[in-house]
Design a protein that fits this description.
Length: 284
């Protein structure tokens, strides 16, 4: 492993499990000084890096976390917005609390963290980088996960719009959005792999995609790489043809059939208990 990230301070949200844990391990081995936050205190301790329990939907708490990171480790070079949840349900069965949790953590927290980081980077005048973890669901529809898909579409649009904004203003901040296919983590419990090109990937492979975005910044990163061409070409075919292909390849019911999976229910219960208190007003 090249230690070409030596001296870079990287902040990662949702660093305790899954993609976050794998990314922390990989970037540390590449030389980065990592600072992570999560709601799971035990996983933070196990990470072996600078970490704090932080509700990222609480703007004041996240700002205080960044203040502590910069006081202890130095200015933040890279922010990775990774924290997220994926409750599944048919829309009429989704509680308002679940809707609020998904949008609050997957989208609003990303926007507020990005605003805070951009303010700091512009004030320093040295630039930096922001990487937002979206999903293949940020480009394609998934029945049974409509609100989750909405949040990831929004993260994708937000990130790509900022890319243009930074270019237009000649702001020296790089922004990327990572689109993984279904990842072998708790979030994917109950999903069956479809027959299409978006095969499930490991958290380690997503971590490699994030590392590649730091080494070679670009607006969109697909994991696996083959997902990119299929997403772009899929946008060009007629809708009815796309829906037919989705059905034939098994994507139409991928999430719907996971709704009754006993292990899926266990994840949903744990995610609900550990979700931030986003029913409160977002705080400035």
């Amino acid at each position: 492993m090249k230690r070409d990230l030596e001296g870079k301070v990287v902040v990662l949200t949702g660093g305790g499990r899954g993609i976050g844990a794998s990314t922390t391990k990989l970037l540390t081995s590449a030389g980065a000084t990592m600072a992570i936050c999560d709601l799971d205190e035990a996983s933070i301790r196990e990470s072996g890096v600078f970490g704090r329990v932080v509700d990222v939907t609480d703007r004041a708490a996240f700002k205080a976390f960044l203040d502590e990171v910069e006081a202890e480790l130095g200015p933040v070079d890279v922010l990775i917005n990774n924290a997220g949840i994926m409750p599944l349900n048919r829309i009429e069965d989704e509680t308002d609390r679940a809707t609020h949790d998904i949008i609050g953590l997957n989208l609003m927290a990303v926007i507020y963290a990005t605003k805070e980081m951009v303010t700091r980077m512009k004030k320093r005048g040295t630039g930096g980088q922001i990487i937002n973890v979206s999903s293949a669901a940020g480009r394609i529809p998934i029945a049974g996960a409509s609100t989750y898909v909405a949040s990831k579409h929004a993260v994708s649009g937000f990130s790509n719009s900022l890319h243009i904004e930074f270019k237009a203003d000649k702001t020296p901040i790089q922004i990327s959005v990572v689109h993984p296919a279904m990842v072998h983590t708790e979030l994917a419990t109950g999903f069956r792999a479809n027959k299409g090109p978006a095969k499930p990937v490991t958290p380690e492979l997503v971590a490699e995609g994030i590392l590649s975005a730091i080494r070679k910044p670009r607006p969109n990163i697909y994991v696996p790489r083959s997902l990119g061409p299929s997403v772009r070409s899929g946008a060009l075919i007629p809708r009815r043809t796309g829906e037919w292909l989705n059905k034939v390849l098994g994507g139409e019911r991928a999430a719907l059939d996971a709704l009754d999976d006993p292990q899926r229910k266990a994840y949903e219960e744990r995610a609900a208990k550990s979700a931030p208190a986003v029913d409160k007003e977002f705080r400035d």
